[in-house]
Amino acid sequence: MVRFLAAVALLVGLAMVLYDTDAGNVLSMALYVTLCALTWRAAASAPAGRDRALWRLVALAPTLWCLGDGVEMLQRYLWSVPPVGIADAFWLGGYPVLAAALVGMARRRAPGRLRGAALDALTMTASAALACWQFLIEPVLGLGYGVLQSVVPALYPVGDVTLLAALLFVALSPGRRGAPTGLLIAAITLYLAVDLGYNLLPYVAGPDLVDRLGPLIMFGNALLAAAARHPGRAELTTPEPAERRLHPARVVLLGLALMAAPALTVARTGLNGAGLVALAVTALCVAFVLARFTFAVREQERAEERMRWQAHHDPLTGLANRAVLTDRLEALTDNGSPAAVLYLDLDGFKAVNDGHGHEAGDAVLRAVAARLLTLVRGGDLVARLGGDEFVVLAPGLDAAGASALAARVVDQVARPVPIGPATFAVGASVGVAVLSGTGGADALRAADTAMYQAKRRGRGRWVVAGADAARDESAGEYETAWHPRAEPDHLAPAPAGGR
């Protein structure tokens, strides 16, 4: 991709040097047609349906501009180039076509979530439209030319404003910002910069230099072709999660947009002292309003982050909750991935909680949670289901690995827990099940049943559920591998049959 863009850049530079020569015209048209063909080929390889239709619109825009250049070239060689002609129809037609493609991409990548991006984009576009009217459109309409010679040149800034609005829709919409998005934004930005140069450079440079800007459009076409051919182009049309944070650049752009109208008004009426003071005060007010707006948004973002965290975590231990565990089990089941499920219940916790208060019980639960986190791998999940029940989900772990992990869990949980001047101790009864070809709920139920067996066999041990545990809990057909462990003398015994 880099070599492709570098080669096109060299050819574009050569076309600028040879501009308005026969060799330059041939080179420009050959390069233009080649880039259009590459974009059409990339569009044809897009997935059938709306994605392909959008990429075809992207390919159609430079094709229309290429046809406009071809018509103008023929007129130059065969007749003369009129002030307004059929070439303008092709050139102007490319703007709404490309804008429609960009808006379609923004809607695809953020379905139903474009309201904020649309409002911000329209705010910035309105300011740009005011500037275009004041400096580019109104002066042309006031020259007194005929209808076509006045209206058609004025339509080019309108096309630029339309393209700018569509570009902002894509740039501000939620979604990934990978290389394809960057290439697309760079292409549209280059188009707008060239058009702006056509309007502003005549005031400071000669017509020969201004005319040589034309071939730069082809480098924009190369950027479009590169975006269409990029392996990750699906990011432009694939729905992505909504953005959670307000980007500071958006606030700055909104501030500039809000200041555009006052600044243009002062520039038009004259840069006198009163106008400059009014402009400065307006800028301060805008800055204060945007600062207050940013603070409010940041507070809302922090509140939403807390709510999202609370929805997926146990508030006491910080471990994942049952909802997260269920989602992970369903995902592993859907993927057919093996995993080990360890269901553990603390032995003697009730005696600690009842005899020493809930603060001591909470401290023991937090200590157990911290120890479990030190025993698992990076991709494993430790969840608290409530009370003194915990689950460890270890993807990719077989029965042997799960048994070794269960043994470490039993040993680590049994270590005394120092809390201030006192020391407490609990044990763990662990049931182990392997998720392989069975549902996640079945594996969890099998591990729960195996944990009950560990309770009945004396606590402070682990039991592996057999393959039939989830389907026939009453049959007692379990392949067990358990390590008897004497309860420490200081471990408060739980009531018979209790957890």
Give the % helix.
Answer: 55-70%
Q: Please give the count of helices.
A: 16
Spatial strand sequence of the major β-sheet: 2-3-1-6-7
Which percent range describes the beta-strand content?
Answer: 5-15%
Low-confidence stretches: 467-499
Number of separate strands = 7
Morphology call: elongated
Q: Determine the structural class based on helices, strands and strand pairing.
A: alpha+beta
Number of domains as seen in the coordinates = 3
SSE order, one letter for each helix or strand: HHHHHHHHHHHHEHHEEHEEEHE
Cα(first) to Cα(last) distance is 63 Å
- Radius of gyration, Cα only, in angstroms? 34 Å
Kindly state the mean pLDDT as a whole number? 85
Largest sheet, if any? 5 strands, mixed
Please give a structural write-up.
It comes from Dactylosporangium matsuzakiense. Residues 474-499 are annotated as: Disordered. Keywords: Membrane, Transmembrane, Transmembrane helix. Residues 474-490 have a biased composition (Basic and acidic residues). The chain has helices at residues 2-17, 22-44, 50-78, 86-109, 115-141, 147-172, 179-200, 207-211, 216-229, 248-269, 273-312, 322-335, 349-356, 358-375, 399-413, 440-456; strands at 339-347, 381-386, 389-395, 417-419, 422-424, 427-435, 462-464. With 499 residues, it is an alpha+beta fold. It has three domains: 2-241; 244-312; 322-464, Alpha-Beta Plaits, CATH 3.30.70. Helix 2 (22-44) packs antiparallel against helix 3, helix 5 (115-141) runs antiparallel to helix 6 (147-172) and helix 5 (115-141) runs parallel beside helix 10 (248-269). The strands form two sheets. It has a five-stranded mixed sheet with strand order 2-3-1-6-7, with helices on both faces. The chain has a two-stranded antiparallel ribbon with strand order 4-5. It is elongated and about 100 Å long.
